[in-house]
Amino acid sequence: MTTLLTNIGELTTNDGPALHDAAVLIDGDLISWVGPAVQAPSADEIVDAGGRAVIPGFVDSHSHLVFGGDRAAEFEARMAGQKYAAGGIRSTVAATRTATDDELRARLRGFIEELQAQGTTTVEIKSGYGLSVDDEARLVRIAAEVTPEVTFLGAHVVPADYADRSDEYVDLVTGPMLDVCAPHAKWIDVFCETGAFTVEQSRRVLEAGIARGLAPRMHASQLGPGEGVRLAVELGAASVDHGTYLTDDDVYALAASDTVLTLLPGVEFSTRQPYPDARRLIDAGVTVALACDTNPGSSFTSSMPFCIAVAVRDMGMTPTEAVWAATAGGAAALRRDDVGVIAPGKRADLVLLKAPTHIHLAYRPGVPLVERVWKDGVAVS
Ligand code: NIG
Ligand code: FE
């Protein structure tokens, strides 16, 4: 089955400059041809883009979608002046432990539909709201039902039952918990931050994961500066995420590495923290990705268009840089070269916008501009 998406006014390929009056041929689950509409080959089905813009499907490289409960009251208190703290994670842990697998699964599937409707075609999902051997195991298993990009985040926070015994909790994470979770995960992550795990504990967690064949990524410098970013770079992490408080040394280390810095604008928005300066990072040569960090505590948006708008308005990115960061940047953060780009041989993950140019994603914030979405060549929205 072939589908020709033609009469595209602006085609962002991430494989060279944008094309105008372009067409894309989808053959099964892959893209098989990209070029000027006038030269397009024939196909079983023709879709007329009506002169509107097409971009790669968003690659959201950071989310926490398997959880129970809700923290709307915590958000409301923050908007009234209360500070965000890592400890809030524990209330979601309690709600997640009491939810059944089917409840978690149904909610997860709802989130996947919500993401796809907003143009996201690849999503990474972390565990981290179970924090016991059995609960983390069910979270990674449920996540693996909907994505290959599963991250074991047993080291999200020290659970209440291990209060004041954080090293013993790290023993559990790097021992029995890793044993049951590693077969279902691709990545290992740790929240390296005051109130969560120290840099020494973070090293233990990531090195244990690496020894089990998982690839490292990290949450760091969300609530204040620290040594996490440099540890992530030293260990060859694919990405270090948040980076709200980066030192010059962090920026130099990132620029000299192939570790991506993933910015999460939804977090600054809903914790009232200062927005990180993406311009400083890009100008220094750091590869920057954008992700939603969908979770009930620090960022309960699943909208990549919203994150793009904030990154442009408040973080110094151009619309073109922001769309790149949300597509090819996310792919780099997941070490994937088959998504985030529109070119022959790549996955047919495409978004048709209800707009003449990708600039509208920032120019028209909050407006549902995603018209149609293809994932693996299938229209999903
Ligand atoms: O990425 N920083 C740590 N983890 C999540 C927040 C989780 C929560 O507050 O429930 C994050 O922001
Ligand atoms: Fe996170």
Summarize the structure in words:
The chain has 381 residues and is an alpha/beta fold. It folds into 2 domains: 94 residues, Roll (Urease, subunit C, domain 1), CATH 2.30.40; 276 residues, TIM Barrel, CATH 3.20.20. The chain is built from 14 helices and 18 strands. Strand 10, helix 6 and strand 11 form a beta-alpha-beta unit. Helix 11 runs antiparallel to helix 12. The relative contact order is 0.16. Fe (iii) ion binds next to loops.
Secondary structure blueprint with pairings:
Layout: E1 2-11, E2 19-27, E3 30-36, E4 45-48, E5 53-56, E6 58-60, H1 72-79, H2 89-98, H3 101-117, E7 120-123, E8 125-126, H4 133-144, E9 150-155, H5 166-181, E10 187-192, H6 199-211, E11 215-216, E12 218-220, H7 228-234, E13 239-242, H8 248-255, E14 260-263, H9 265-271, H10 278-284, E15 288-290, H11 304-314, H12 319-326, H13 328-333, E16 350-353, H14 360-363, E17 370-375, E18 378-379
Parallel strand pairs: 1-4, 1-5, 6-7, 8-9, 9-10, 10-11, 10-12, 12-13, 13-14, 14-15
Antiparallel strand pairs: 1-2, 2-3, 5-16, 16-17, 17-18
